[in-house]
Amino acid sequence: MSRVLIIGAGGVGRVVAHKCAQLPDVFSDICLASRTQSKCDQIASELNCPIQTAALNADEVGQTVNLIKRFRPDLVINVALPYQDLAIMDACLEADVDYLDTANYEPPDEARFEYKWQWAYQEKFKKAGRMALLGSGFDPGVTNVFCAYAQKHLFDEIEQVDILDCNAGDHGYPFATNFNPEINIREVTSIGRYWEEGDWKETPPLSVKRDFDFPEVGMRRAYLMYHEELESLALHLKGLKRIRFWMTFGESYLTHLRVLENVGMTGIKPVEFQGQQIVPLQFLKALLPDPASLGPRTKGKTCIGCLVDGSKDGKRRRVFIYNVCDHQACYEEVKSQAVSYTTGVPAMIGAKQILSGQWRKPGVFNMEQLDPDPFMTDLNACGLPWNVLEMPVEEAGS
Ligand code: NDP
Fold it and tell me: pTM, whole model, 2 decimals?
């Protein structure tokens, strides 16, 4: 029986609240807090059990500390935005509580996708006897756990990993993003980067592509991008020679993005307009559909997985470990589409591992540093079943 404070009432926050409320034996008391309390109240009204809600500006450490002291949670689940990570970690240390998030800290005025600021909290969390679990979403999150599982059970040595993220959902809009547009567009327009033989290699944004036959979805074109889990996996997977990340995009999405970029609408530096400072990407966010509104309109599936190359018992082996998730099935269950669902369910499962003691230890951890087995069992039990597909080894390395 544990008390959990969820911060952030967007698409992911809704899923986390629904999934925690489904397991009252683990999450006996829930408080959902966010900048706009009415969004928390709306989510609370959808649940079968009563939860508390609160208004909170998590940029203000003092506000979060006060709320933690009032509600006395065993764990804080941060599913606000990456800009709040450090302030919420500070509040957790001050109020003496464990911490979990789904995305690395981002400085507001620069797209970095780096763990260094959060890894710098290692000693503070250790000393306080508190745990911070970083990146407990799908990617990062489940993809890290898939790699840990492959290392523990499927391979003696892993040489290469390609993380493949396909969203084959259709929401019917010419252009919309499936999660927070600001974060999503920052990520997609950044320089491509992958890790090989100890070095980071860079490619122009979305310039390298491959076609992949995704189970239950079919052939899709995926583009090489940098993604934050590459940093921790390159560090923690022993013997690794190369790791890359790929995401699929449709032609229409890419055309819109190119135009928006060319006219300067994806910029994150403020510009002056009629005497006001405006960040173009934030203005664009205000024009685009709210990701939370895509749920009822989105049809189709997501397929996200890790294509892992290496050897087992002296033989070459290549496997694809993946999950397929159906947008409409997710909406029926928790009133959110699959992108929020595939992030919110692992956040709940990560929280469950900490609260049950299976994963709990002092310090700052990425997901692959912990035992994958209980997490993989819970994925199957809690709505994100996974499969391991043996792939032809002659394609290894491609
Ligand atoms: P949304 O934009 O839908 O929701 C963010 C929520 O955080 C909103 O309710 C917002 O409040 C709230 N918020 C923003 N600033 C503050 C603040 N200062 N204090 C308190 N609350 C605040 O985002 P998503 O739900 O789509 O994403 C949530 C997180 O999940 C993000 O960090 C995102 O990067 C991450 N993510 C991770 C993925 C993974 O696989 N690892 C995949 C997808 C997302 P308001 O409504 O008032 O604006």
Answer: 0.95
